[in-house]
User: Fold this.
Amino acid sequence: MKAFAPATMLADDWRDGLFAGRVETSEGPTPVLVHGGVLHDMSRVAPTMSQLIQDRAFDASAGTALGDLESLTLSADGDLRLLSPVDLQCVKAAGVTFAVSAVERVIEERARGDAGKAAEVRAMLESRIGGGIRGLVPGSSEAMTLKQALIDEGMWSQYLEVAIGPDAEIFTKSPVLSTVGWGAEIGVRSDSSWNNPEPEIAILADSHGEPVGASLGNDVNLRDFEGRSALLLGKAKDNNASCSLGPFVRLFDQSFTMDDVRTAEVDLLIEGEDGYVLKGHSSMREISRDPTDLVAQAMSEHHYPDGYILFLGTLFAPTQDRDDPGRGFTHKVGDMVSISTPKLGRLVNCVTHSKTAPPWTLGISGLMQNLVSRGLLGAR
Assistant:
């Protein structure tokens, strides 16, 4: 993986925005702010990203300037390594938030995870549903009328319930501290034969459920596992190195608001070592539920004292054949996945198997021990 290049990896207006994230220094994981294009070490102000967000410690001048990003060498494995921009926050995800993704989930369910049967099921569903669920307000009387019609035709699915019903699908994507950042390898299970990236925008919220910023993310999904049974969602979603975020979280301010999230156009590029190229696109304008509604549903009656980050879902559902006709797309080791949008930059990861990706070893206790050894915990 090449070194991080701010001009191509950050937002188009990266010198005007305010970004928060984490880097690995010789001392350990370190919260940082990027302001005016300059990277600032904020560890003496807030030792964790969670605390930085909770305290709204967004005055970069209170930290230690490490230099202009263009003069620093950030990489995935160097002395100054770019990490996932969250630490103690819970990692949540909203599923089936776009009409297309709802149809694809029903296809997975009806095909029982068999990619070879997917084309046949897709043709049947599209002929019956078509664009019937596009533009519907979830939970509305119109949505409930469509639900009853589909039940009467024997076509109802649990996935359509969360697509057009009142309650969104909210699940835990991965454990605290398990996410990987820009440039890291991203993993799929070695026993999966049908899987894909899910290019998404993720909203970072504080302990009160207040949105504070957004990042790009890859919510890797194993379509064969989830297609066999929704009860295999955990195995389909939560695996070593199966969740990436970054490069940074762009904090909401006058230059970047929730409306920028609502109107974002997210592009995907997959480049395989076999010469295969796939381009995808996801328009946030087509999301079925407003991002603030999803953030609120994730909060619900739960309490996240260290905050949470929520994947908003994706419109992208790859159906292009890669190898055998009718089998659609699936990853191969070595695939380079790039997710981008002008206001958030570009998240790049290389696909490997979860069992061969670098093991996740730094848990909460390890992080706390590191912060104690650095003198970063205690009365301030």
The chain has two domains: 6-96+168-373, 99-164. The chain has a mean pLDDT of 90.
